[in-house]
Fold this sequence. Notes:
By secondary structure, the protein is of the alpha+beta class.
Amino acid sequence: MKRFQECNRIVKIWRYRWYLLIPLQWIWYSIVGFKVYKDEIIDEELIHTDNYDIIKGKNLWQLLKGAIHYKMGWYWTHEEVTERINKLLDR
């Protein structure tokens, strides 16, 4: 699958359809709760626990948006990230 940034306009419009899910998922997880389980490292082993945090509000929206960006194929290369950081530092 091509990166979102490299696609033509028609493909980009088609991939933007995933954004329609964010408000619906946000409402659903605001009611039900978006559980993020806390894992512990004991004796250099990852142990899954039953303890969890419930993510709500703006943080939930950002997590859902990131998940949608993955489905859209929207990501940055190392060179693009480095270039953006250098531009910010040169200001």
